[in-house]
Task: structure prediction
Amino acid sequence: MVPTAKNLLTLLSNNDVTFFIPPYQRNYEWDDSQCKVFWEDVIKTAKTNEGGTHTEHFFGSVTYFQDEGVFGEPTKLILIDGQQRITTTMLFLAALRDIIADSSQKKYINSRYLKNNNSIDETEYKIKLKQVESDWSAYKKIILSEDLSTEDKLSAVWHNYNFFKTKINSFIKENADYNLSKLIEHGLDKFSVITIELQPKQNSWENPQEIFESMNSIGKPLSLADLVRNYLLLGLDAETQNKYYHQYWMKIEKTVPKQISNFIRDYMQGVTAKPFRQASENNYKELYSLFKKIFANEDAENLLYNLSKYSEYYSYISLSKSSGSVAVDKVLDDLKQVNVSTSYSFIMMLIAEWKKGAFFDYDLVNILEAFKVYNYRRRILGITQNENKTFPTLVDKIQLLIKAKDKKREMFQILSKQENSMRLPNDVEMTREMETMNFYSFKYCKYFLALVEENLTRSRPDLSDSHLQIEHIMPQKLNEQWKKSLGDDYEQIQQTYINSIGNLTLIRHNQELGNKSFNEKKDTYTNYSGLQIAKTMITDKNDWNENTIKDRSIWLIKYILEKIVPIPPEMVRTNNFVPKEGKHLSFLELQLIGSTIYFLNDTSITAKVVSDVEVEFEGKKWRLSPLTREIFTRKGTVNRSGTYNGSQFWGFDGMRISDIL
Result:
């Protein structure tokens, strides 16, 4: 290891070397914030030196090692650290070259810093800095002053090149007589670096991979994707690196762009059926450490092959790319609409089994339909707790699904055996929630109303249509006509029902209907809305009031439960979750608080559920078993032991409480 203090431009002007960014390095990722700091440092350094005070700016370290040379070509220096800073410097120089008026200065910048005059032909050595493949096209065209494609212009390379051109042009306007060459002479030329040349062939301990991982990079921290790519490629010889990079890693970059870290974390969850923390700057290193443990014995090429293959499956879910099945794509898109990103690892592993032939298309659709219904129900209730911890563990249930004859029912069975926070909500709980919830403020209000329209007409409205609106039938602001039609209790009626599901519809109209009369609204719903949901249970009514809103609420709730989120009949009323070991279910967990239950032997005897474990009977609070004994005692039919399991003698909504349990 040979550390040396050097001037940045002296390093870059050496025509005996060409810098190479190896394929395992990340793409160029500096953004406006880092480029702004760079620009301000150049200006500050230049102005200080122009004022007569000598100053330098330390620009960090540059670490590299020499690759095997090619006779007649410059020495090839492989960058380990410094890629982002050197690329940014080159883009600044290119922008300056393209703006500066003096042709000799243009030529000087071009030949001294950007291109390599010692290269004998137009090979990759001709350009002094060879980028990674994904940035190479845009960078090469900028250096060679060629036209860029639309795809090239999506790169950070092009963006930052233009950032510097904008800054330089603005600077010229404010400093009309300024000689731009001073930005180099007094600014960039005063940037110093520490170069560290590794010598891995002479010193085995100077392992580029280990040194790379131990460095604290200036600028953006390495992502999980960066760390994993380096881990898989860095220890290989140059030829194998390039082969694996082009064959596998570039496919991953193109398949799941900007999502590689999330994909790798979800792949880890899929392989282990265990949850890990979400991929973020705070825990990239932690996830990387776990990645190395999980795949410690995996061959690099085999792992890269699997990652590239599974990235394709991941793209079906996360980026809505085609899976090859229209039916599968549709249900995946439906799931994405209600944000099920915590389940991506499970879904990805399902898709992998489907691609292996373990499932037919309709099998996978049925499994995902059950999972969709489960998530739809939970979104209506606003339940998301523990999904990030539980969904990855469902991977262990995939073999049960493969073996099951009725895969949809098996999926429902699996979901109905989760603990309380992950429960499959039954119709009782769903009905109670939808009867009283503020459906207008519900995040997915428009989406669920669109699903109703789709079930009525087989055509789902385009949610991105600016004319598609959620309409309050009874308006939010009542005029005198509406007050009169609602009656003396209009204030209470509006407060109670204004945002209820029964008072809402979708319309496709380019004007607000506001507080127009019900007859005027009916005309619009009938002739101009273009939607069946704006007609059904509305336009056949003569008045719009408390009773019609209730009737439409009952219809919509029943329609949603039966047509959009149907579950197996045996699960409609029973609790669909498993209590923690050693714990009995409470009235709270059964969603029965506030409900009236009845004595099965005499249904005229009722009690009101008032807490987790108590009911109110004749103005007194009882636990269910003592109350059961009291009633049998009054009837003179108490059993010898006087002990009862109260849940067996009471019912709710046509079911025995013990059966609900």
Summary: The mean pLDDT is 89.
